[in-house]
Design a protein that fits this description.
With 488 residues, the chain is α/β, with parallel strands linked by helices. Helix content is 39%, strand content 14%. An eleven-stranded mixed beta sheet has the order 1-3-2-4-6-5-10-11-9-7-8, sandwiched between helices.
Length: 488
């Protein structure tokens, strides 16, 4: 899609302004149903499109992503633009600077249409935890788009953006990509700068792209990856690499591992069938498939739901009603009404945070408290080390690890809101990539029928650290083989 639109722009078949207007029109017509956007940046988008058209008129060479309309998750800062992270505590917050990924996208003159809805502070799996609205799945408006990057995935799936950025802490790019039938990449930890991403769990968070195709994901990824001196965790690796140039290579002889722990009898039979079919496509490409073991997999979910809330608890101490965002004290009119410092903290957080944020903060604070730190947090970090060892051993035998992205298709809105544990279990296949830091990609592998609707299912490939080029190459080969077989 991106390359096709780029060629049309260069050939003069369309203008960047007309393209931006087309997507802005779609947002106006559809987003009342989808609820993908929190903020639409019509003026800024059209101004950027004008710049691209002027460059083309002068005969200048433009980047592949120049003039291509995209969307940005609302926890990524854009200077001068409201950034709420879908929380009332940041309802009036205006970003004072650009995130590094935004600065990089501006440098190539891409067109950013707006900020997308999400679970509050990227905590959730359905985009139902937003303080503003519930985003709906374009495939079935009664179902969730996944979370926490549900707005970004819905915008791409609903043709309200060509591409989008999300953030992934435990599956928040890949799960909504799977639910919405698009492609989503969680890069290797450190491959993309987190500077300007509102911190949730700092050792797990990673920004990544969502798009309709593997090639489009590779194109966006190329423009945001690379070392950043503003982010001490960013890696000095792959600077300037064009990941789209690695697509189309020979994948014969590659090895895909199937963890026996992921394919137990508990897996939904309909999803198992699609996974088996996907593996046949890989085999037809000359890729070897073999069973492997990740023996500590069963401990990943409990370890994640200790480590992640602990880091959330620490990071969210900054939302105190003093430095920025909501302050209950500021809303009190008289001196007599003014709160003490402690009351300001408590009142602001009580009114500003939603239920899931409060739940995670309390879980994390408890796990880090005196007498429980060793029993919970330290033990979880030891499990994390064992999981990484499992992956290191697996990658001695295979090049990739395949699984479903999710254990089920998109569920009904409201179906799991009263049962947090049931919601958390949906992350079972995605969280290990964040705990171990490996890159992971979700891509469509077919659909299942539910209530008369065909709902997309995603397959997930996890690869070696800092080897996104091979991961994308294999997924691209699968995508092309799948399309060839289904177009006959």
């Amino acid at each position: 899609m991106i390359r096709l639109l780029h060629n049309k722009l260069v050939a003069g078949e369309i203008t960047a302004v007309d393209l931006a207007k087309q997507y802005l029109k779609t947002i106006k017509e559809k987003d009342g149903e989808f609820g993908a956007y929190l903020t639409v940046l019509e003026k800024q988008a059209l101004e950027e499109a004008v710049i691209v058209d002027e460059r083309l008129k002068r005969g200048e060479t433009i980047d592949l992503l120049a003039g291509i309309p995209g969307a940005i998750k609302d926890n990524i800062l854009m200077e001068g633009i409201r950034a709420t992270s879908a929380s009332k505590i940041l309802d009036n917050y205006i970003a004072p600077y650009d995130a590094t990924v935004i600065a990089k996208l501006k440098a190539v003159h891409t067109v950013m249409l707006g900020k997308t809805n999400m679970d509050e502070f990227a905590l959730g799996s359905s985009t139902e935890n937003s303080a503003y609205q519930v985003t709906k799945n374009p495939y079935d408006l009664t179902r969730v788009p996944g979370g926490t990057s549900g707005g970004s995935a819905a915008a791409v799936a609903g043709s309200e953006a060509v591409w989008a950025l999300g953030s992934d802490t435990g599956g928040s790019i890949r799960q909504p990509a799977a639910f919405c039938g698009v492609v989503g990449l969680k890069p290797t930890y450190g491959r993309v700068s987190r500077y300007g991403l509102m911190a949730g769990a700092s050792s797990l968070d990673q920004i990544g792209p969502i798009a309709q195709t593997v090639e489009d994901v590779a194109i966006v990824f190329s423009r945001i990856a690379g070392y950043d001196p503003h982010d001490a965790t960013s890696a000095d690796s792959g600077h300037g690499k064009k990941y789209e140039d690695y697509l189309g290579g020979d994948v014969r002889g590659k090895k895909i591992g199937i963890p026996k722990e992921y394919f137990s009898s508990d897996l939904d039979p309909k999803i198992r069938v699609l996974c088996d079919q996907a593996l046949e496509y890989f085999k037809s490409l000359g890729i070897e498939v073999r069973e492997i073991s990740l023996p500590h997999s069963s401990f990943a979910l409990p370890a994640y739901y200790i480590i992640q809330p602990c880091e959330v608890s620490s990071n969210f101490a900054r939302y105190d009603g003093i430095r920025y965002g909501l302050s209950i004290n500021d809303e009190k009119s008289s001196v007599e009404e003014k709160s003490t410092l402690l009351e300001t903290y408590l009142d602001t957080r009580r009114h500003g945070f939603g239920p899931e944020v409060k739940r995670r903060i309390m879980l994390g604070t408890y796990s880090l408290s005196s007498g429980y730190y060793d029993a919970y947090y330290l033990k979880a970090q030891k499990v994390r080390a064992l999981l990484k060892q499992d992956f290191e051993k697996a990658f001695e035998e295979v090049d990739f690890i395949f699984s479903p992205t999710t254990p089920e298709p998109a569920f009904k809105i409201g179906e799991k809101t009263t049962d947090p544990l049931k919601m958390y279990l949906g992350d079972i296949y995605t969280i290990t990539a964040n705990l171990t830091g490996v890159p992971a990609l979700s891509f469509p592998i077919g659909t299942v029928s539910e209530d008369g609707k065909e709902l997309p299912i995603g397959g997930q490939l996890q690869g070696r650290w800092f080897d996104e080029e091979t991961l994308l190459c294999v997924a691209d080969a699968f995508e092309k083989e799948y399309e060839r077989c289904h177009s006959v």
